[in-house]
Amino acid sequence: MKTFLVPLSPEEEADCLNRLKNGERAAKEELILHNMRLVAHVAKKYVNAEEDAEDLISIGTIGLLKAVDSFKPDYGSRFATYAIRCIDNEMLMHFRSKKKTRGEVSLFEPIGTDKEGNQIQLVDVLEYHDSNVAEAVARREQIQKIRENMESVLNGREVFIIQRRYGLGGERELTQREIAKSLGISRSYVSRMEKKALMKLKKIISD
Predict the structure, then answer these.
(1) Coil, strand or helix: which one is 102?
(2) Residues 1, 60: contact at Cβ < 8 Å?
(3) Which ranges of the chain have pLDDT less than 50?
(4) Residue 48 pairs with which residues in a beta bridge?
(5) Distance CA 153, CA 141 (A)
(6) Residue 135: which of 14, 42, 15, 33 has the closest Cα?
(7) Can you give the pLDDT at residue 101?
(8) CB < 8 Å & 24+ apart, contacts of 87-90
(9) pTM higher than 0.70
(10) H-helix or E-strand spanning residue 123
């Protein structure tokens, strides 16, 4: 893969988005060039014997261009998160058009709803726990591995705690205190069990 420019700092990105809003063409080019790394990360997860990396980067770049043209700061998400959504969608449309989707788990697969009834997607959970969204994309296989093996490595109470804490499997996201009340145990005990369960899940992806 090619070497791309480093991502913009939050301050640089905010300035760039502000200049873009004012119609500055150079700001648009800057935003595209400094986010090509996101395209490369997403493309890397779809490369196989029948798909060339450079072709996928070209397809992903279309998604990035759409993101730059349609993003608005008041969307309530980081530009990188929004851009990855557009890039990933562009890739998926490409595969659907060729009827070569391989059943991979999309970062934007719905996994539940939040307290306001809004849909929660895998990328939302990743972004909350890892500020480097590009690295989150690189962990697609780890997410799949966790989903497939969670119930085999965690006991019933641990599964319940993880599902309820992070809103997985369509469950409503709860605080440790709410979980403790529902189980009739202390919040500190829930905290210890959550940490223990997360260590088990971490071992899944490190093996």
Answers:
(1) coil
(2) no
(3) 1, 49, 100-103, 105, 125-131, 133-134, 136-138
(4) 51
(5) 17
(6) 42
(7) 44
(8) 87/38, 87/39, 87/42, 87/60, 87/63, 88/42, 88/63, 89/63, 90/59, 90/60, 90/62, 90/63, 90/66
(9) no
(10) helix 122-129
